[in-house]
From TrEMBL:
Plays a role in repairing double-strand DNA breaks, probably involving stabilizing or processing branched DNA or blocked replication forks. Pfam families: AAA_25, ChlI, Zn_ribbon_LapB. This is DNA repair protein RadA. It comes from Neorhizobium petrolearium. SMART domains: AAA.
Length: 455
């Protein structure tokens, strides 16, 4: 028999290499390639005879449809992020940095579901039963019927959850601790994680239970991260937040049964996570509106408007190369705005350090924040505070034009609701509400904005 061949798999992106290398060609990461056994996965060894195929009936696109059967947790921020609750027979991956609060969130979800009469099994591979119980006590979940197991072996877990009455939802915390007898690689490698996840997904599809898989994001790439199983599961949610801040965002990045870009917002407390139904109020909480360099951005997260403050500090530099530092936004986008300000508005920032910060540790991904960023920069440079009751949104192009963005009406409605009477928005914006009493100022281009702010 031929000597069993091994392969070299990048633990960051899963690219297979024929030999070991220091750097992965697939993702460019260093020191992420690990030797694995290719037959360790699903499908058995090389000696197996292939099974003869069986034809399945082809069908058309029209015909009967059905709504995915869902399990609602009653935690509305979580239900919103999952698109209306966990779907039976599907697998959801919840990723996030270690210590961000994934286990806490899922314990709370398990307790809420159990109180609604669902059978929930929580399999912890990271903590002993006593530790999980302690957490449950702190979260006020100890008096529920959630069933616990501390186990990491895939076959044992499957045997455990298949026994007795069928569970409605199974939580596996975390996929990195799973290991299977059928895979030879070390626990935590891509092969082991994939094998384990595949087995759990198969269980969900066969039994109709909802499967929730926890995955730690690994910066080092030494342990297989959630990225390598993203394509296998039905939905992927990331739990994010800044360690220095007390709120957390559950962000949908993939969902076969609902919309993506939805977010659920939570606030941390000693009794666990609390839902935040109006995130704008949280992000604008500690605002000092009289200071120059602060502009409120009216943003959108999926279907939900979020108001957040963008802060800029522009100061003469003492260095040869001025500093540019950004927190919560894209730094190349900042460079672009600075270049456009210089080229089209004569705002020279070559001798200035520029610092940009999004308040509250929030991260903005929308290009619609351009106008708010430009306003904050000009305001800081000019030393003039912006009107306290005004919001800003609009995308800036390289020509200096301000381009309309989507969902104008929702942004303005949220601003009005929170007491903002004015807005600077792109000219030719659709759906601008009329007759509401709001001062909606349409901005044609960046020179127009600079003239309005700096006079
Ligand atoms: P944990 O849920 O264990 O994080 P993860 O499973 O993502 O690694 O939470 C980390 C720590 O933070 C834990 O000691 C509990 C604490 N914590 C709170 O005290 N309150 C909260 O609301 C949350 C989310 C966590
Ligand atoms: Mg945990």
């Amino acid at each position: 028999m031929a000597k069993p061949k091994t392969q070299f798999v990048c633990q960051n992106c899963g690219t297979v290499h024929s030999r070991w290398a220091g750097k992965c060609d697939g993702c460019g990461e260093w020191n992420t390639i690990v030797e694995e056994d290719p037959m360790g996965g699903i499908g058995g060894g090389p000696g197996r005879a292939p099974k003869k195929g069986r034809a399945v009936a082809l069908t058309t696109l029209s015909g009967e449809t059905e709504q995915a059967p869902r399990i609602h947790t009653g935690i509305s921020e979580l239900d919103r992020a999952t698109g209306g609750g966990f779907v039976r027979g599907s697998a959801v991956l919840i990723g996030g940095d270690p210590g961000i609060g994934k286990s806490t969130l899922l314990m709370q979800a398990a307790a809420a579901l159990s109180r609604r009469g669902h059978r929930i099994i929580y399999v912890s591979g990271e903590e002993a039963v006593a530790q999980v119980r302690l957490r449950a006590q702190r979260l006020d979940a100890a008096n529920t019927e959630v069933l616990l197991a501390a186990e990491t072996n895939v076959e044992d877990i499957l045997a455990t959850i298949s026994e007795g009455k069928r569970p409605d939802l199974v939580i596996i915390d975390s996929i990195q601790t799973l290991w299977s007898d059928t895979a030879d690689s070390a626990p935590g490698t891509v092969t082991q994680v994939r094998t384990g996840v595949q087995a759990m997904i198969r269980f969900a599809k066969q039994t109709g239970a909802a499967m929730v898989l926890v995955g730690h994001v690994t910066k080092e790439g030494q342990i297989a991260g959630p990225r390598v199983v993203e394509h296998m599961v039905d939905a992927v949610l990331y739990f994010e937040g800044d360690r220095g801040h007390h709120y957390r965002i559950l962000r949908t990045v993939k969902n076969r049964f609902g919309p993506t870009d939805e977010i659920g917002v939570f606030e941390m407390s000693d009794k666990g996570l609390r839902e935040v139904s109006n995130p704008s109020e949280l992000f604008l909480g500690e605002r000092n509106a009289k200071a120059p360099g602060a502009a409120v951005f009216a943003g959108m997260e999926g279907t939900r408007p979020v108001l957040v403050e963008v802060q800029a500090l522009v100061a003469p530099t003492s260095l040869g190369t001025p500093r540019r530092a950004v927190v919560g936004w894209d730094s190349s986008r900042l460079s672009m705005i600075l270049a456009v300000l210089e080229a089209h508005c004569g705002v020279k920032l070559g001798q200035h350090d520029v610092y940009l910060n999004v308040a509250g540790g929030y991260r903005i991904s929308e290009p619609a924040a351009d106008l708010a960023v430009a306003s904050a920069l000009v305001s800081s440079l000019a030393g003039l505070a912006l009107p306290a009751d005004c919001v800003y949104f609009g995308e800036i192009s390289l020509s200096g034009a301000v381009r309309p963005v989507s969902q104008t009406a929702q942004r303005l409605k949220e601003a009005e609701k929170l007491g903002f009477a004015g807005a600077m928005l792109p000219a030719a914006s659709a759906e601008v509400p009329k007759g509401t009493g709001g001062r909606w100022t349409e901005i044609d281009d960046l020179p127009d904005l600079v003239a309005r702010i700096a006079g």
